Amino acid sequence: xxxxxxxxxxxxxxxxxxxxxxxxxxxxxxxxxxxxxxxxxxxxxxxxxxxxxxxxxxxxxxxxxxxxxxxxxxxxxxxxxxxxxxxxxxxxxxxxxxxxxxxxxxxxxxxxxxxxxxxxxxxxxxxxxxxxxxxxxxxxxxxxxxxxxxxxxxxxxxxxxxxxxxxxxxxxxxxxxxxxxxxxxxxxxxxxxxxxxxxxxxxxxxxxxxxxxxxxxxxxxxxxxxxxxxxxxxxxxxxxxxxxxxxxxxxxxxxxxxxxxxxxxxxxxxxxxxxxxxxxxxxxxxxxxxxxxxxxxxxxxxxxxxxxxxxxxxxxxxxxxxxxxxxxxxxxx
Amino acid sequence: xxxxxxxxxxxxxxxxxxxxxxxxxxxxxxxxxxxxxxxxxxxxxxxxxxxxxxxxxxxxxxxxxxxxxxxxxxxxxxxxxxxxxxxxxxxxxxxxxxxxxxxxxxxxxxxxxxxxxxxxxxxxxxxxxxxxxxxxxxxxxxxxxxxxxxxxxxxxxxxxxxxxxxxxxxxxxxxxxxxxxxxxxxxxxxxxxxxxxxxxxxxxxxxxxxxxxxxxxxxxxxxxxxxxxxxxxxxxxxxxxxxxxxxxxxxxxxxxxxxxxxxxxxxxxxxxxxxxxxxxxxxxxxxxxxxxxxxxxxxxxxxxxxxxxxxxxxxxxxxxxxxxxxxxxxxxx
DNA sequence: CCAACCCTTTTGAACGTTTCATACCACGAA
DNA sequence: TTCGTGGTATGAAACGTTCAAAAGGGTTGG
Lengths: 333, 333
Description:
Two copies of one chain form a homodimer. Chain A is an alpha/beta fold. The first copy, chain A, has helices at about 1-10, 10-20, 25-40, 45-50, 70-85, 100-110, 125-135, 155-170, 185-200, 205-210, 225-230, 245-255, 290-305; strands at about 60-65, 90-95, 115-120, 140, 150-155, 175-180, 210-215, 240, 265-270, 285-290, 315, 320. In chain A, the strands form three sheets. Chain A has a six-stranded parallel β-sheet, sandwiched between helices. In chain A, helix 1 (about 1-10) crosses helix 3. The longest helix of chain A has 16 residues, at about 70-85. The first copy, chain A, is elongated. Chain A starts with a helix and ends in an 11-residue tail after the last strand. At the A-B interface, helix 4, helix 5, strand 2, helix 6 and helix 12 of A face helix 4, helix 5, strand 2, helix 6 and helix 12 of B. Strand 2 of chain A pairs antiparallel with strand 2 (about 90-95) of chain B, so a sheet runs across the interface.
């Protein structure tokens, strides 16, 4: 900046003014400075302006794993919203390790980020609340909290489970296997209770309708291995509800191998509406979530935190059932 | 930092030393300062240290779209490598818009990033080379260049095409439809020329063997729409090679609907080995790429750029054929 | 008893900005 | 002539660090 000032024959302050309040400097000077800038290939130093107290344009997004299509999509929404305010995204995957989360949070704070969007793995939220107290805006993503101190944006997973179950019940299914991963997270707990709600609301006994099945691998790609047990159940289900699309895909494949027709013999429902859900055969009935929008508004909420009149808000998005061809009424028996 | 110094009854420099060269300060003082730090909840200010000339711990990753599973995986590799050196990832999706690319590059430079990993959309590389000249390390990802000035890490797409074609030729296929997107990028051009190479090497006329087919949508999810044309060809193919797995999935579905058995009547090969390739039925024969490793070494190369003896390198990774059950020998006719 | 040395700590300048108060200048009004 | 006045430009301090040089205070050896 000094060189630019010299080159243009003005003072440092004038160069700064050209950049930040162009209206206060004469047209002619402005051009002279501008010219000097490109001649010298000047690039402003964000670190220095931050040091002077300007707000940072960095925002941290801490997710469980950016490789997970759900988070990828959410982050893309975040990125696009941030771009509108000339902010940039720092991506952090915790792999569900509290240590990694801790490390990233610390590092983000050192960088003086404008705020942090996070799907927490440490559910105590201790370090987060501490950061918030130190003045770093925090927005919880895909996680609800009773802490009124934080903004949060999440999905209504209970509703998602209800939608899926409702659809199956309406088709006439009275015995539904629900496949979840072996480790429980709030999201799947909610979805399952949504399923039971739907049963009860329809006047059926949840315990009779629902066959709760656990799949060993956390990503549920091994869903197919539980099929034999499911089919051999004393009261075999006429529908299988998988709490992720990937599992649904494996299930459809496994059923086909066993000579079971989908949806003729058994209906299958997924969750997430990943890109391939529409492509597979039969195309998958599944629960869609407004992932990108979720990220978009989460980022908006975060950017709003620095505004004077800000009030913390807790937004909950509603999933939608996408009916395709993997579900049908059960055969009359 | 000042408060910490006062609280601990030492000078600023001592606090700094505790942080940066603990070996030079007495054990006892160290503890005193440490204590003062947590008591006050002190968080170092990265902007200030950067200002003093320390290298930044920020690294930019500019990809076409972080939603694309290929890039997601690559970026995850980058993230993990960066973490080893306590660096952080700034993610930028250009959506193939030169304007967005330009914007992000500028912004990254303002932030004084340690370097930039990029899959360029502006193939002239003009702004990139300018940045490199200004001292910002640049590593090209999934893009080869003759510019000796830059490091690059890429996939051998010619080899990928060759592997896939070779596999089919060996199985006895003599007529292969190759589906690519309507817009050409270097990657698919290379893959196609690999296919032709394989034909030639096996002593067949590429023009006779290859049926070049274009799919309207850029993401090739509409691949199924070209099937009727393909099947109606004067010399109908016994195998279909799709240059992305998503297309392969659509094709398998389309064939099934038309009563064509895979791989009994027609073999299908994909490209990318996305997560669902192993899950679908039949599981998909496809070309796998070391995505995560690609990102990992790209990041390593970047971090190495600041080391004194650094020489620019151009690494090329080899894809691997993953044979599953969507391919078989053609029926005797 | 003094110089030389080691170990630990401090001083003070710099890094590249922004910002506020101040200075300059020309012009029209009193 | 003098005095504001409005539009522009500048000076200097401050932001939170790091780092080289120097200082302080023991201990040791001559």
